[in-house]
Amino acid sequence: MTIETAQSSRGADTAVVIQCAGLEKSYGQRSALRGVTATVAEGERIAVFGDNGAGKSTLLRLMSGLLRPSGGRIHVFGRQPWGREGARVRARIGTLSHQSHLYQELSMRENLALYAQLNGVPDPGTRADELIERFRLAGRRADPVRTLSRGMTQRVSLMRALIHTPALLILDEPETGLDAAARDLLTRYIAERGADVTVVLATHSIDLGVALTTRDIVLRNGAIEYDSASHGVSSLSSERRREQVAEQIAPRATLT
Amino acid sequence: MKSPSQATGPKNTPPGYAAQFWLLLRKELAVEFRSRETAAPMAVFAVAALIAFQFSFDLRGAVLTLVAPGVLWVAIIFASLLALGRSFAREDERGSLEGILLSPTDPGALYLAKAAANVVLLTMLEVVIVPLSALLFNLQLLQPALLPTFLLGNIGIAGVGTILSSIAAQARAREALLPIMLLPLLVPVIIAAVRATGLAIDGRPWEDIQPWLAVLAAYDLIFVVLSALLFYATVER
Question: A64-78, A240-254, B158-172: lowest mean pLDDT where?
């Protein structure tokens, strides 16, 4: 099933950040995404819900340039995000995924400085220190990542995603490993950036999704089942949004 | 609506190819020297292999200069499998390769940095085992022509081995797959390096050694350039 999503209601001065049309991804014979069509406007915050295997991570990996689509089209900031052509696009994306993407032998500061340099951040060391202070890990800045707890590692991983002040933040189940304090820091960071950052969040937590975003998409079997933007329900209360999403995620009865 | 490229947010300028290469090479060496995951096992393996050869064969007189270069290069190539095998497997296990691919890094720069780090590891290995071979086999290894031979041989092994390591890392039987793919491709390197080493040990003139060095240089150039260009296809999902 494919649902054409409505353009953002943010106004005529808003740029399109992500545009997917008939997006498909297969792993061998298995189809992970089937004809996803969606548009994400600048400054929008979108939560992607769905069961395990619904295609959430695949969709986010396509958006971040880690995967090449099997069919259809995806443009991020007007260009394909993968390959050599996508390098400049990827410099504007911050991705937090299930894996830390950190080098265990390097310290958190070295990891952050490396990613800052690769992304062309003007003063990498200062930027790394700034984030370490902000995420309250200054006492461990020189310790190798392998000596950090899982929660701390996930915080460093989040800092890595934010090191270059991305214009598009892609968060794949950030609730995994992040404690309440770190989630609070993330929420405040997103609030401070305002319309400067577009957020796409895949999550199993309806509460987190509703708290961080303003638009809901539900994926089922690799296709968009529900998009609040195309249902004209963008101004619902948080409570009503939770109910709406829970209803959409609930398993469908199958006819036999 | 504004055009997509007009979207707000900082537009950092990613570093150029050479700067990316240098950053990634420094990272590779820092990770290796702190973990000592491959350098130490490589050295132990190569030393053990040389000692085993020494006790297994009666290497004396004319046979010595014929066989010793082959023994030395076989030890180097088998030891290199340990470094090459870990080169991408380590990244894949920890997801750090994805982190690099998420950044605006050119995959070619990543390949060259990994290959250069493997050249450094092989050179360090040779610093240990070449003098040891001279002692064990009573060889005259202080020959100037041996320097370019080892350097070009290392580049050939690391150049091909690094790209094949990235392919093997995605397979379930990665430990078995790498030698199966690599060893046949290294036949020209083995032949040229063994011949050049043998001639140098014999004290033969530069003109005799040069053609074998030219073979090694041509092999290195072709495989390293092709690998840097094609590397993206091996890490793409």
Answer: A240-254
Residue B102, pLDDT above cutoff 70:
yes
Facing B1 at nearest CB: one of A16, A167, A197:
A16
**Closest Cβ–Cβ partner in A14, A75, A101 for B98:** A101
Alpha-carbon distance of A61 to A54, in angstroms, equals: 14
Kindly list the residues from chain A whose CB atom is less than 8 angstroms away from the CB atom of residue B2: 13-15, 42
Name the DSSP letter for residue A122: S
C-alpha B225/C-alpha B202 separation (Å) is 33
| Domains held by chain A: number | 2
Contacts of B6 in chain A (CB under 8 A): 15
What pTM did the predictor assign?
A: 0.87
The model's confidence at residue A2, banded by pLDDT at 50, 70 and 90, is very low
The contacts of residue B207 (CB under 8 Å, 6+ apart) are none
How many separate domains does chain B show? Answer: 1
Tell me which of A113, A139, A165 is where a domain ends: A165
User: Between these two residues, A68 and B53, which has the higher pLDDT value?
Assistant: A68
Range of the domain at B230: 17-26+37-235
Determine the average pLDDT of the residues in A120-139.
93
Residue A128, pLDDT above cutoff 80? yes
Q: Residue B48: inside a domain, yes or no?
A: yes
User: Least CA distance to B6: which residue of chain A?
Assistant: A15
Chain segment A152-188, per-residue pLDDT in tens? 999 999 999 999 999 999 999 988 878 888 888 888 8
Closest CA to B51 of B72, B24, B80: B72
First to last CA, chain A: 20
Structure-token pair, residue B206: 């530069």
Q: How many pairs of residues across A and B have Cβ atoms under 8 Å apart?
A: 143
Among B12, B23, B35, B232, the strongest candidate for a mutation testing the A interface, having the largest count of A CBs within 10 A, is: B12
Residue B5 placed within a domain: no
Token pair recorded at residue B7: 């979207």
Residue B193, domain member (yes or no): yes
A112 interaction partners in chain B (CB closer than 8 Å):
none
User: Structural domain of residue A198, as residue ranges?
Assistant: 1-92+166-256
Residue count of chain B: 237
Residue B31 placed within a domain: no
